[in-house]
Amino acid sequence: MSLGMYAASIPVYQRQLGALAKVLEKGSAWAAAKKVDEAVLGATRLTPDMLPFTRQVQIACRFAEESAARLAGAEVPAPHDNAEKTLGDLQKRIAAVQAYIKGFKAEQIDGSEGREVVLTIAGNPLKLTGEQYLLHFALPNFYFHCTTAYAILRQSGVEIGKRDFLGAV
Predict the structure, then answer these.
(1) pTM of the full predicted structure?
(2) Contact indicator for 56, 17 with CB cutoff of 8 Å
């Protein structure tokens, strides 16, 4: 049996977003115990030229929802206002994205390997097949932002480990 585009995307996003939500729970508990303002944690960066924690989570969510829509040939949802201020707000964002991608069925996404996906990057069109888009653009970006969010919490002192990042395997 071959691996379909649905199996390579939606369940992957669901599992990793679930793990990210649990990491946020631990981050929230840590912030409360250490009396750290969640807004400060949300503004934390690994290095000055990288985006802060809150944006890392928002972008990971955006890659999951945008790529699901593109692979299904559906309209990409309008961008969010990115107004999340607390880890609880970010958990609500993750829950909303989880609910959105749960609505996609395998028959909408399977077979999208050859579907043309056109992105505009720095004003220039980038044409990819669905397979190229998922495997070489959407998933790497999604994991980059999930990993960076995890790393920011870890370097801040939140007691999380590899099992937390991986979630339920």
Answers:
(1) 0.95
(2) no
Cα dihedral across residues 92, 121, 52, 140: positive or negative? positive
- DSSP H or E run through 129: strand 124-129
The number of folded domains in the chain is: 1
Find out whether 119 and 125 touch, Cβ atoms under 8 Å: yes
What is the amino acid identity at position 39? Answer: A
The domain that holds 31 is classified in CATH as 1.20.120.450
Strand partners, 121: 124
Q: Give the model confidence (pLDDT) of 129-146 as tens digits.
A: 999 999 999 999 999 999
Q: Does residue 78 lie in a domain region? A: yes
Predicted confidence (pLDDT) per residue in 83-131, tens digit: 998 999 999 999 999 999 999 999 999 999 999 999 999 999 999 999 9
Name the DSSP class of 16. H
**Distance (Å, whole) CA 157 – CA 125:** 41
As beta bridge partners, residue 128 has 117
